[in-house]
Specification:
By secondary structure, the chain is mostly helical. The chain is 63% helix and 0% strand. The protein has helices at residues 11-17, 26-41, 45-52, 56-77, 79-82. It is extended and about 55 Å long.
């Protein structure tokens, strides 16, 4: 019998068994999951706040980070954007 119920695995059990020897922590996994949600469903702070129960300021911060990552990823994929000069001296 591998399970005694249908409830979620306790944090302590999960940390002791699954994360042993890994560089990841529960906090890093949580942050990664929230950022992944923002990248997948768009940088919408209301969606993030609703899904994860985040404080509005925290949701806005995740959305801004996701927006910056999406912009960076788009620039890397599009050679025309990537090769444009950036900064105050750009024409």
């Amino acid at each position: 019998m591998s399970a005694h119920g249908t409830g979620p695995v306790s944090t302590i059990h999960f940390a002791k068994t699954r994360l042993r020897g890994q560089a990841a922590t529960l906090e890093r996994l949580r942050v990664d999951r929230q950022l992944e949600e923002a990248l997948t469903h768009g940088p919408d702070p209301l969606h993030l706040a609703a899904v994860f129960g985040l404080d509005p300021k925290t949701a806005i911060r995740y959305a801004e980070n996701a927006r910056a990552l999406l912009t960076t990823m788009t620039e890397e994929e599009d050679p025309a954007i990537r090769d444009e000069p950036k900064g105050p001296n750009a024409p």
